[in-house]
Design goal:
mainly alpha; 3 helices; 0% strand
């Protein structure tokens, strides 16, 4: 079992939407794993985990249409989403210098936005 990194939040199995809670926790875990890979500058692993995360999010979207969350579960979901957004911001801050260097190496110049 992975150590508690703040992403795992208890869901009440008696609430009826335990599976939805598990799905949100899986996305949060993947997000944390992506951040760990970004800290190691393992961008291939970040990309692999991102693909898994996208798959999990697709499942969440489909399940959300048929498995509504209780008010309690909504609060837990919001906590997980905040953690995911924090991870995403940290991943982006680590990736941006690498992406700028890649653009420089391949000679890519960003296009100016047209009004």
């Amino acid at each position: 079992m992975a150590p508690d990194d703040g992403h795992a939040l208890p869901w009440d199995a008696d609430r009826g939407s335990h599976r939805m809670g598990e799905r949100y926790q899986q996305v949060a875990q993947l997000s944390g794993d992506m951040l760990a890979a970004a800290r190691r500058e393992d961008w291939n692993e970040v990309a692999r985990l991102e693909a898994q995360c996208e798959s999990q999010i697709g499942e969440l979207k489909r399940a959300a249409m048929i498995e509504p969350l209780s008010a309690y579960e909504q609060r837990r979901r919001i906590q997980l989403l905040r953690a995911i957004l924090q991870d995403d911001a940290q991943i982006r801050s680590r990736a941006e210098p690498w992406l700028r260097e890649l653009e420089r190496v391949v000679g890519f110049a960003p296009r100016a936005e047209s009004d």
